[in-house]
């Protein structure tokens, strides 16, 4: 039981780390969704604290265990979305470079 408990809060910590890692953060800035990622990071930090407390209480209270399982399932869904976004960011970084701009450059032919 202790191992399963430790996995919950550490998993959320890993997810938080993914939200602030480059090239994901760089890509989020270019796509203008960095504020959303920052809100997710803050929310997940609060959730992590609650999960730590709930992991201790789930042994005594079945309702807390059910709630905690639902919350962990949601965290896994969030991780899937973040992983997809991170994969796209890494692919873009490889093809465009880390400082690539989202604006297009127009090249005019000179006479």
UniProtKB/TrEMBL annotation:
Q: Where is the composition biased (Polar residues)?
A: 94-104
Record InterPro entries: Rx_N (IPR041118)
Q: Which residues form the Disease resistance N-terminal domain?
A: 11-96
Which parts of this chain are annotated as the region Disordered? Answer: 89-111
Per UniProt, the keywords (alphabetical) are: Nucleotide-binding, Plant defense, Repeat
Is the keyword S-adenosyl-L-methionine assigned to this protein? no
What name appears for this protein in its UniProt entry? Disease resistance N-terminal domain-containing protein
Q: Which organism is it from?
A: Vitis vinifera
């Amino acid at each position: 039981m202790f191992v399963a408990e430790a996995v919950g809060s550490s998993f959320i910590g890993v997810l938080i780390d993914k939200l602030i890692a480059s090239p994901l953060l760089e890509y989020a800035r270019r796509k203008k969704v960095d504020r959303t990622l920052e809100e997710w990071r803050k929310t997940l930090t609060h959730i992590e604290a609650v999960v730590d407390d709930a992991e201790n209480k789930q042994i005594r209270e079945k309702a807390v265990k059910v709630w905690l399982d639902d919350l962990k399932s949601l965290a896994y869904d969030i991780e899937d979305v973040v992983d997809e976004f991170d994969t796209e960011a890494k692919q873009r970084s490889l093809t465009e470079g880390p400082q690539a701009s989202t604006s297009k450059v127009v090249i005019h032919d000179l006479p």
